[in-house]
What we know:
Number of domains: 2
Bound molecules: zinc ion
Strand content: 15-25%
Number of strands: 22
CATH architecture of the largest domain: 4-Layer Sandwich
Number of helices: 10
Mean pLDDT: 95
Distance between the termini: 7 Å
Strand order of the largest sheet: 6-5-4-3-2-1-22
CATH superfamily of the largest domain: Ribonuclease Z/Hydroxyacylglutathione hydrolase-like
Helix content: 25-40%
Low-confidence stretches: none
Amino acid sequence: MAIVKFHGGCHQIGKSCVEVNTKKSKILLDCGMDPSDNSLPDIKDSEYDAVLVSHAHLDHCGAIPYFNFKKVYCNPPTADLMYNVWKDTVNLSKIYKEEDIKKTMDVIKTVKYREEKQVTSDIKMKMHDAGHILGSSSIYLDVDGKKLLYTGDINEIETRTLCSADTDIDEIDTIIIESTYGSPLDIKPARKVLEKQLIDEISETIENGGKVIIPVFAVGRSQEIIVVINNYMKSGALKEVPIYVNGSLTHTIGMYMGYSEWLNPKIKNTIENRINPFGNLIKNSDEVFNKEPCIIISTSGMVQGGPILQYLSLLKNPKNKLILTGYQAEGTIGRSLEEGVKEITPFKRAIPVNGTVIKVEFSAHADYNSLIRYLKKIPEPKKAIVMHGERYQALSLAMTIWKTFKIPAIAPTNGSILPLF
Ligand SMILES: [Zn+2]
Ligand SMILES: [Zn+2]
């Protein structure tokens, strides 16, 4: 009998790491780090035949270079993006070194969406577009004849940069599903409404001559937000002001352009017609402190490390505004700002927060309704396991699946071992 064991990512967002263990083989689905405290899954790398990576976010791939794995499977854009996020990790947290990245790049095997791959003697896999970031995948496994779908992070709606999650999937025995927005309290406004809200907030600050600071992850909603801002500026609905981005963002935008065939067909056509959908971006420099008004888009998304920290002093000025656009984990500066603290201490000296802090949840994740729609579109699984959500969200989605679909559903805790069949 095969089992799944959860090394991380249960009742939390961070450190996703799921072991699939049969009599003959042992693999991992993702091997992430917890971005709030840099902790890693407690595993013994030599036991595993391979790691299969859903996408290039730190909570899914951040721990990989720390270990010595024999093989790492992912698709080509994910391999490139991982290199980028690992380099950032080396610079920021030093939990591994440049040589560890090189050693990991040497064992990466790339696969395309929907390409069937024999991973071990009794495990076959197929990746489906998950609609979450460039290259993001749901991983479909045939484990000795039993079918497992690991959704990874999914977005069920089409966005400006990406297609919606692929739901044309073969029959499923067990689904392991994310639950970032798994509770009925997590119903988000429509994308168009959010875009309008974001632009209105930016507009207000710019009209007042202030600066807008937007913390983002290098990959995902940052590209989406830049395309939205650029479109509104081009149409004249938003005043044209300089947009400053940091180095790793420029780099990942380049990758989005380079992998245009993995994007939404509309943006792919734009790129093929030699129009840059991201517009003119300026590399961050000290010039932003004197430039008024302007927009600063910088990593990291939870304001925990990264170049964004050096711009937080701008919050002393009440004219300026910081816009959070995604989930803020407990213990991060982003979460404190979201909770309305009056003072932050990114470095030695405390900074008073006199500027405005708001949140426009520009998520790359399916909201509650969207998760239910996703479950209705895919073949009905016989059993559901819910992870990648805080405790309330995970338990809530498990309850909804059980009540709505009459499917046994649980939200295990880290360390749990469950039979796969
Ligand atoms: Zn993600
Ligand atoms: Zn995630």
